[in-house]
Design a protein that fits this description.
With 327 residues, the chain is an alpha/beta fold. It has helices at 47-54, 76-79, 98-108, 114-122, 138-150, 168-183, 195-201, 219-226, 241-250, 271-278, 294-303, 314-321; strands at residues 3-16, 19-32, 36-40, 62-67, 70-72, 83-86, 156-160, 187-191, 204-209, 212-218, 231-235, 255-257, 262-264, 284-289. A hairpin with a 4-residue loop joins strand 12 and strand 13 (262-264). The chain binds adenosine-5'-triphosphate. It comes from Paractinoplanes durhamensis.
Length: 327
């Protein structure tokens, strides 16, 4: 599949009177054509810096970026017409209607007027197009912002937190819009904190922490490689959980104690758990794989942010570390 966006080893250091801050530290990302790609990371992890760097608003200190096969920022003018982006909330004149707003933007950008009706239809604002923007809900304003980015029929649409501040109805409308755009063949890169939403909408995700990629792939792959090996263990009544947990920890297992159960986080081969415990006459009464969601994987991964000065990606470390205990 063709990559619409490729980032390799991106570096960005901010320098101010207060000191030096490394916002991106060898960040990598690949976004494939026709996908909705989720870009996730905690506050301050480098998402906005990445998007602003891509769009030529910030100069990187190192690394490579390509959009639609063209190196940027050097060839940004050649591809800028094919990229639509909302990185900062655009401000609209409240007294203008959305039709007037988009018409003005179309004229200024040399876009033919028929596109105005087409994008209003796409974002579901056609019925309200002749009403003033100040009468719009936040969700409608967000959709107007998306409409403005769609005027030039971009191949790649970049949206920073499009669902920010929206209520559940607004979030659902935004979700439908993303899916419709993707079905029309557009590639969408979407940064968001709303992980349940990302899980519902996105084909692929990239998770960033402390300026580095810590996981990437389809939502299913990320869940499978970072969480599916966790199991919940209950023991026969009367057996001390702590003793069993210590036995497993001594063999390298990551054990979290609950009230009447414990969870083994890196249980690549659950049979090892029963074998190690049975050798000490401790018998398991329940062994259940725990189903993880993106939120728990996100918290786990971004809580274990890469150590300063190490260039290895955490996802590579995690992949090699799985299932290797208790041998
Ligand atoms: N202009 C700047 N000068 C100095 N430091 C900056 C500047 N912009 C961002 N930073 C710092 O760079 C790091 C990454 O910030 P960035 O805004 O890219 O994160 P983010 O993932 O978009 O966060 P959020 O989700 O809160 O928007 C943070 O530590 C931030 O404080």
């Amino acid at each position: 599949m063709d990559a619409v966006l490729e980032i390799a080893g991106l570096q960005k250091t901010y320098r101010s009177r207060k000191g030096v801050r490394r916002a991106l530290d060898g960040f990598d990302m690949v976004v494939e054509a026709g996908q909705v790609h989720g870009f996730l990371g905690p506050n301050g992890s480098g998402k906005t810096t990445t998007l602003r760097t891509l769009l030529g608003l910030i100069r990187p200190n190192g690394g490579r970026m390509a959009i639609l096969g063209q190196e940027v920022p050097r060839h940004l003018p050649a591809v800028a017409g094919q990229v639509g982006a909302i990185v900062e909330s655009p401000q609209f004149f409240g007294n203008f209607t959305s039709y007037d707003t988009l018409s003005l933007l179309a004229d200024a950008g040399g876009v033919r007027r028929e596109r105005v009706d087409a994008v209003l239809e796409l974002v579901g604002l056609r019925d309200r197009a002749k009403e003033r923007v100040r009468t719009y809900s936040l969700g409608m304003k967000q959709r107007l912002a998306v409409a403005s980015a769609l005027l030039k029929e971009p191949k790649l649409l970049i949206l920073d937190e499009p669902a920010n501040g929206l209520d559940p109805g607004g979030i659902r409308e935004m979700r439908t819009l993303m899916r419709n755009l993707s079905e029309s063949g557009m590639t969408v890169l979407l940064s968001s904190h709303i992980l349940g939403e990302i899980q519902l909408i996105c084909d692929q995700v990239t998770i960033i922490a402390a300026g580095r990629r810590v996981a990437h792939g389809s939502v299913a792959e990320v869940l499978a490689s970072h969480a599916s090996s966790s199991v919940r263990v209950r023991l026969e009544p009367g057996i001390d959980l702590l003793t069993a947990a210590q036995l497993l920890r001594a063999k390298g297992a990551q054990v979290d104690l609950g009230t009447d159960f414990f969870t083994v986080g890196n249980a690549g081969n659950p049979a090892q758990i029963t074998r190690i415990l049975a050798e000490q006459q401790i018998y398991v009464s329940e062994l259940t794989p725990t189903t993880a969601d993106l939120e728990s994987v996100f918290l786990e991964l971004t809580g274990t942010a890469p150590v300063d000065g190490q260039n290895r990606q955490v996802d590579q470390v995690a992949a090699t570390a799985q299932g290797g205990w208790g041998q």
